[in-house]
Specification:
The structure is a single chain. The protein is α/β, with parallel strands linked by helices. It contains 11 helices and 6 strands. It has 2 domains: 143 residues, Rossmann fold, CATH 3.40.50.1000; 108 residues, no CATH class. It starts with a strand and ends with a helix. The chain is globular and about 65 Å long. 48% of the residues lie in helices and 10% in strands. It has a 6-stranded parallel β-sheet. Strand 2, helix 7 and strand 3 form a beta-alpha-beta unit.
């Protein structure tokens, strides 16, 4: 019997790229207009510099294993993190400012004060611009109370929790597991074991719903959780052998199908 549903967050319940774009535009539109720099070019320069800096770190393998990347790290405080990330708590603001300075320099702007100002303006947008997909609220209304609901997401803890707070989901999901708080991320089996422990269910009593075959579907199956692949961009005629839905509107009927199997 299915007792619990485990959801991925980014690009499953809410789009990720549109958040980054909106936050960057809000922070940088004035500078873009005044300096006559195309906003996409400015964003590409800053995010590109940040990604190169992140990947050049001697700790990148650790960050990658936890599922932390660009541009998420440009927003996080890295407080209340596991020991493996403690070294970032006191240095992250300087790293963020440096990444912005590098990005601005690539398009001919060498102004450290501006780099700091834009970095902080971008961070200030962290709690804004979060909008669930249109099919999420009706799905939650239909399933809440019938199943225990959980989130299992890769990302920085503070950034991901801001998303949940912004849309009022803190009380909707009884268990929230975030890789940046746990110290390991999907597809690591430990992350799936942790969310099962939080829900107090066995693997065969849970269903995982996510958009990634590699991070959600395959590792869920490997630990005995039934996975459902949410393929929002896939035409229905191109569906794979996986249990696949194109919209969360289809989830309740898919769960009934699984329950009858």
């Amino acid at each position: 019997m299915i007792r619990a549903l485990v959801f991925d967050l980014d690009d499953t319940l809410m789009p990720e790229a549109s958040f980054w774009d909106a936050a960057f535009e809000a922070a940088c539109r004035d500078t873009s207009d005044r300096r006559r720099i195309a906003l996409p070019a400015l964003q590409a320069a800053v995010f590109g510099a940040a990604d190169r800096m992140w990947r050049a770190s001697t700790q990148f393998a650790t960050y990658y294993g936890i599922g932390l990347g660009t541009p998420s790290w440009l927003l996080s405080d890295f407080r209340d993190v596991p020991e493996v990330l403690k070294h970032l708590t006191g240095t992250i603001r300087d790293m963020q400012h440096a990444a912005w300075a590098m990005g601005l320099a690539e398009i001919g702007i060498r102004e450290e004060v501006l780099a700091v100002r834009l970095s902080e303006a971008f961070r200030a947008e962290r709690t804004l611009h979060h909008e669930p997909y249109a099919d999420v609220t009706p799905m939650l209304d239909a399933l809440l109370g019938r199943y225990d609901l959980a989130i299992l997401t890769n990302g920085c803890g503070d950034v991901q929790r801001d998303k949940l707070r912004a849309v009022g989901w803190e009380s909707v999901f009884s268990t929230v597991v975030i890789s940046g708080e746990l110290g390991c991320g999907k597809p690591d089996r430990r992350a799936f074991a942790h969310v099962l422990g939080g829900l107090n269910v066995s693997a065969d009593e849970a269903v995982m719903i996510g958009d990634s075959l590699d991070r959600d579907v395959a590792p869920a199956r490997a630990v005995g959780i039934t996975p459902i692949w949410l393929a929002r961009s896939m035409d229905a005629t191109m569906r794979s052998d996986e249990l696949t839905i194109a919209s969360l509107d289809e989830l309740p009927s898919m769960l009934e199908r699984i329950g009858r199997a």
